[in-house]
Structure formats: C-alpha cells, structure tokens
C-alpha cells in the first residue's frame, strides 16, 4: 500500500533535473529551456520525444507518397528475418505397414473362400438351362445341397420351418435357409462378375426373383458383392476421368512452356539475339492454344450431366473453377512482348557496348603486339600459310549449326535453339579471333 | 519455427503422397479450421483437391470411385467410428488416412478389419494439430478451458496433445517449464511431459539431439497472472479488429454493417494470403489510415483525378469510382471497408476517451484522478455498457488493495446506467479470478524496486503514445527467460535431458492457459525482432478479446465460492 502511494509522486511531467511536476509537456519544455539551458542534450531529447508522440497521435506525418506506396504493398522480408531459417517438414509416422499386415492376414481367409465361390458361380451361370427342373438339377450338380431332414429351424433367423416357411438352399454353399433370409443375385450381374469382359447391363428395374436370380445366403452374397465392388472401382474410368486426365496433361505441357516463354521474353528484353520475336510469338501462340484446350475440356467437364447439389456436380464445377483460375493466373497473365522497335533499341545499345569492348580489346592487342615486335624484332612477321585450311571447317560447321537451328525452330524446340545459338556464337568468336590473329 | 509453414508442409505432403488424380479431402470440424487457416480455397484447388467433405455430415451415399480421398481427422473415438463406417461402404476409390495426432495400434487394427475392399493406401500420423493463426501464434480455439478453476478433462487432453503436436511439427526437443503458483499449469505441464515420454522413441528417431544449442523451452503460464491485457482496447490493426469486430479463424463478419457490399459480408484476414494485411498487422490505426490515403493519392496522381480523399467516407467513394484501383490494390479495398467500420465504432462509442483511461489505470498510479474520470465516463451515454464494465473491472484489479477503494460505489453506478446483470457479475468474477490473491507476478509493478525505477524513466521519457502505454506482463517474463533470469522456484522445470540452468534458451514456446491476446502476439513479434537468434512462438487455449475473456472468466469461476470479494455486497 505504502509503495503504491509513494510512487504516485514520481509520475507526471517531472523535470529530470529539479524533479518539479510541470503538469504538461509544453510547460515542461519551456521550464527546461528557461531554467536548465545548460543541459542542452536533455532538452533535445525531450523535444524529440514530444515531437514523436505528436506525430504518432496526430498523424501529421507527410512522408514521401511513393515510399509509403512501396512500404504498403511490397513486403519487406527483413521484418521476418528470424523466420528465414529453412523449415523442414515436421515429424510424421506411418502405420501403413502394420495396417496392411493385419488386413492381408484377414482378407486371405476371405480370398480363398471368395475364389471357391467364384468358381462355383462360373459353373452355375455357364450353360444354365432355362427350364426350372433342369436348372435345379444343374444347380445341385455344381453345388451339393445340404440334407435338410434334420434341420428344424432356419439357421439364420431361428424360426421353425413349416408349411408356409419352406426350406431353401443357398446356390453357392448349399446351406439351408428360409425365404426371408435369402437374397437374390441377378443372373446377368453374376455373368458380369465371372466374366468382366462381358457387356455391362444397366441396373435392372424389375425385382429380382427366384426366376431371374440366384438364391444366396447372406454370407455368400456379401462376399460376392464385395468382389463386385472391388471390380467396379477398378473399372471406374469414366468419360469424366478421361477428359480430366487430358486436361491435366495439357496443364503439364503448359508448365514448361510458360517457364520457357518467360526465359525467352527476358532474353529479348536483355537484347540477346538467341531468340527472335517470331519465336517468342509462336511460343505465346502455343500457350494460348493449350489454354484454349484446357478451357474447352474444363467446360466439357462442367457440362457433364449431374444432378445439381450432388457431389458429382460439385466436383465438376470445382474442376472448372480450378482450370479457369489456372488459366487466368498462369497462362493469360503472361508478360507483354517488347515491340520490334524496343528490341532494336536494346540490341543497338548492347551492340554499341560490345563494339566498344572489342575496340578496347583490339587496342590492347595492338599495343601488346607492338611491344612484342620491339622485343623480338622482324622475325615475328611470319605469315601463317595454313590460314585457308583452318577457315573452311569452321565456316562449314557454322553453316551446319545454322541448319540445325532452323530445324529446331520449325519444331518449336526452343531449348535446343538456345544451346545451338550458344554454340554458333562460340564458333563465330573463334572465327573472329583467328582472323584477328591471322591479320597480325 | 514458423507454425503456419509447419502446417502447410504437412498438408502439401498429404496432397502429394496421393499422386495425381481428382481428390477429395475428408475432415472433421477442427481439422477443417486447421486447413482453412493456412490455405485459401483456390490454393487447395490447384493441388487437385476439388471437394471438401465433413466426416460427420450425413449426406447421401454416392459412387465416387474415380476419386482419391485424403482423410485428415483428429484421432477422437467419434471420428474413428465414423471413419470405420466410411471404410465399410467406401464412396471413393482409394483412401489416404492422416491422423492429426497419436493413434493407438488397436485403432489401426480395427481400421484394417473394416477395410474389406482394400481401399486404404496410407495410414499416417502427422502433427498438424493446432490452429496456426500467424507465423508465431497458435491457438486451440477453446473458450472456457477451466471450469470451476480446474481443467475440463477433455480440454486438458486437447491442449496436451496439441502441444505435443506442436513440438513434433517444428521438430524441437523441449523441456517443460510452468508457473508454479498455478495448479492448471502444473497439470498441463505434467500431461505434456507424460506424452513426450511416451513418444520418446519417435522423438529420438526423428529429432536428433543437438548439444550445440540450448534446449528449447516450453513455458506454460496462466492467464490469471495477467487479467489486465485482455481487457484493454487495442489500437494496432489486428488486435483492434479482433476487439471490435471479432476475428474467428482468420475471418471477420461484416454482415451487420449497413450497406456493406455483397462480397464483403465476410472477409478473410490472413497474413499468408494478404500482403497488405501482413504488412499492416501491427501498424496502429492512424498509420493504416495514412497508408491507405497515400495509396489513393498515388493512384490519383496516375489517374490525374482531382477527387478529394480526406475522410474514410471519401475513401469508400473513391474505391467505388475507380474499379481499376480495386484491381490494382487487390485487398486494400477490403481493408478500406474494415477500417471504415472500425472508425465508425471508435467515434460511436467514445473509444478514444475510454482507451485513454484504460491505459492510464493500467500503467499509471493516481487513484483519485482515475476514480474521478471513471465516474465521469460512467455517466456518458455514448460509452457502451461493455466498455463501462471493462473500466470498472480494470479499476477493481488495479486498486484492489487501495485504502479508499470505491468499487461498490462504481458497481452501483453501473447499475444506475442500466448495465445488465451478467456484466456486473463479470466484474466481480474477474476480481475473484485474477485478483492479487491469484497472481504470482507483480503485475502492476508495485513491489519491485527495479520496476519502480523503470516507471520513473518512463515518466521521464514522456509518453510516446497515450493509447499504447501498457505493455503486457508476458514481455517481462519472456525477457527474463531469454536472459536466463527466470527464477526456477517460480517457474520450475519438468523432464528433459539437461537442465536449462544458466543456459539462455533460443527457441521458446510460451503457452497461456486461459487464452492469449493479439497484444501479446505483437509483443512476441517485437521480442523476435529485438533479440536476434531468439525465436518465440506464442500459443493460447484461445485468442481472446474482452468479450470472449469475460466468457472465459465466467466459465472458470462457475460454482466457485466468493472468498476474496465477499465485501462487495451489491452484486
């Protein structure tokens, strides 16, 4: 308590020298100016502080607009330098192997059973006679039926068999069950299961009965149904999937093209002669075509029939959205090409720079040569006779490379163009150097 | 230690491991928030994830066998049983399952048994089990973690798991320190230590021990030690938006604002996706207005227009007349709307005056002056009841032991101005929750000679900004920790292979039981700037504003007998 009261007197606009409480900032400053004029440092710092406080509170800060513009929109990474450490992905742990071990141990048991059932199913549906009695005989030949004389209750629902609740047999395992406990497998579906290459029949709209279906117990039905599901998911490649895959492959093609375009563009702006404007324009055209293709396919996907509100419908619109976004962000917003005149200008500048450099180089060599001559005397003025022989293979090679470049351009293989152009340049340099040295 | 990046890396890993193809991501309520905090929808779409499904939604079964399903859920019993149901009748072709925390072998076995169609391709634990609010800020979105002063068991478990996940996701082997005076902190610290021990093998295999650097520290502190910070009005952009408009999972609802454009009914404020926001998160309100004005002036220079931009209303007009500006400046438009609403709030509710007094009560000492001004403000009708209650609560905390404490009279004044019952209770609850009896630290700097001197210096330096005088207690705690001066008897250490004694930690994760605030996030940001080499990450059971903090206190004081506020008879 006492401390709380004590420190009260230590607050307010205290003069740091004489500890007088001056009530306000301006009074403190003037008090200071008049009484402690010798302490100029402190005064300056006081003024600064008040000025700063005013600035922050009143916002009368008239800094350069341009600067604020940059400051607001461009992120200065310095601010987050502590985060610059490279972050690696955190810890994770996979239990996939364990899951697979447990699962396969369990499914193996099922697999043998399912396979046995499938073999029986195959025998049943092949050459199945249409006539009921013959059919029954055929069924019993494939799967021996259990003797039902001692079975009093349905093993599934434990209800007693009687006149109205007759005994039935599962056609796949031969066990006994009542009508209520049996399920029916459409014969056409059964055919499709044993022979996946058979034409698919659409889901039957009629009810499956004893006549057009196979009576099965729940256990066998489930096993067969499971097999059917797995089969179906393997063959789930629909029109949608094909269209989608096409679209993705176009996107995959577009990605390196865009990178290449950026590179070519940059090279033009730098005044290099590796690519010419038509090359880059062609590239742009190609990306445009890809964009069109992606757009078309994604529209197709969005237009596939689907009930509104279902997952399928949502999926299709989402794909279309993603494609549109991709086209907008990555393909259409490409950098604008420079005009012919701009390129000419940049090239001119570059040429002049190069020219100057060559000039300097020449002068240097000239001087060196003179110095050499002075040292070595007239013996250096020997003429190289092999000059013509050396020239021709170089020229020949250059011509060959020019041919290659033409070809690569035609096929729009711009990576190759770049490499070949570089080669050509080197050869040209070599040639010039030789000429120079020959002259000397 | 960038927590946003950590979560992003995990999610990218999930989308990549499933290979090319159409994908759906199946999540629960919490993981949906976790993902949406770090990725925008369009970013996720580019990763071939086209559908977002909730595992607990009861929608029709569709055959979607052409899709790959990424399952990302917390390993709760409910989620696991829902997942079992999904696997028995799989909608999708294949499943890649990721749990956001540790899962038991027994659960994986049941999963394997249900997977009769062999649709599961991957089962993994990834540790993206927290909401990454900012690079250095995370939360578990739990308001009311304590009930009757002790942990709600479920929330305790959630926080412990979340902290384990956090350490694993940023690959740090940390020792746990906690505030000794706080029972909830001790409980949480022990629980985290136990979880860390249980996962010792995982940690040893994945996070190599590095003797070169000091052991990272996880410091668990209690909100009760500093009940003042969440009560204060804020003037930095992010904190201010949260206090006045409430940020929920990086989203702000503007639906109540009259004449708000349709696309602004709910705006996303994420420093990851919004450069303007990232840049101005910690700018004060005035600076932001200035920045916006300059942007518009700049644009006008280009557009050669003469339209005046003087007020927030002018700015709104401006944006409407120049669609190009909208395009150019991208998100700035959104912020013009938000700032417009903030400025309306400020003038409508006299917030400048309220905030000034709040700051003075919290960081100066002048009982009679403060009481007088407080009484005056209570008679001002423009001041919201909520703000009035906040001021009284601040007064109650600050002058709890003052000889002429006038709290009962102030509560009477609150009653006269018609403050609802629950606000009156909040004031008393708060005093019971975070009064002097509950605090370990010297919150107002009354005893410590060093702190008194510090304040003397502060008085000498003048006040830089009257609205930002207050610095949260967390700053002192963290600075002590960084300098190796945090006292072991007040903040004891649990577990860990070498004692941190005498070594100054570089990597610090500080977690506040009872919720953190954006003001503290700013403080941590400043510490990260000020101490090169030191990286601090802040977390809390929630990120509070004053409204949610009152909720938190209410829950924590439920059923607790008043022992320290019995003298206040009029509530």
Automatic annotation (TrEMBL), chain A:
Q: Where is the composition biased (Basic and acidic residues)?
A: 361-375
Q: What are the C2H2-type domain coordinates in residue numbering?
A: 13-41
Q: Which domain of life is it from?
A: Eukaryota
Map out region (Disordered) in residue numbers.
361-391
The coiled-coil regions, if any, are 410-437
InterPro entries named among the record's database cross-references:
Rab4/Rab5_effector (IPR052727), Rbsn_Rab-bd (IPR021565), Rbsn_Rab-bd_sf (IPR036531), Znf_C2H2_type (IPR013087), Znf_FYVE (IPR000306), Znf_FYVE-rel (IPR017455), Znf_FYVE_PHD (IPR011011), Znf_RING/FYVE/PHD (IPR013083)
Q: Report whether Coiled coil shows up as a keyword of the record.
A: yes
Q: Mind telling me which Gene3D superfamilies this protein's record contains?
A: Rabenosyn, Rab binding domain, Zinc/RING finger domain, C3HC4 (zinc finger)
Q: Which GO terms label this protein's molecular function in UniProt?
A: zinc ion binding
Please tell me whether the keyword Coiled coil is annotated for this protein: yes
Instruction: Pinpoint the FYVE-type domain residues.
Output: 148-225
| CDD domains in alphabetical order | FYVE_RBNS5
Question: What keywords is this UniProt entry annotated with?
Answer: Coiled coil, Metal-binding, Zinc, Zinc-finger
This chain belongs to the protein called Rabenosyn-5
Q: Which organism is it from?
A: Chrysodeixis includens
TrEMBL record, chain B:
Name the membrane topology term.
Answer: Peripheral membrane protein
Keyword list, A-Z: Membrane, Protein transport, Transport
Record-stated family? Belongs to the STXBP/unc-18/SEC1 family.
Q: Which GO terms describe its biological process?
A: protein transport; vesicle-mediated transport
What protein am I looking at?
Vacuolar protein sorting-associated protein 45
Compartments annotated for it: namely:
Endomembrane system
Q: Name one GO cellular component term.
A: endomembrane system
InterPro entries xref list: Sec-1-like_dom1 (IPR043154), Sec-1-like_dom3a (IPR043127), Sec1-like (IPR001619), Sec1-like_dom2 (IPR027482), Sec1-like_sf (IPR036045)
**Organism (species):** Chrysodeixis includens
Checking Pfam families in the record gives: Sec1 (PF00995)
Protein origin, superkingdom? Eukaryota
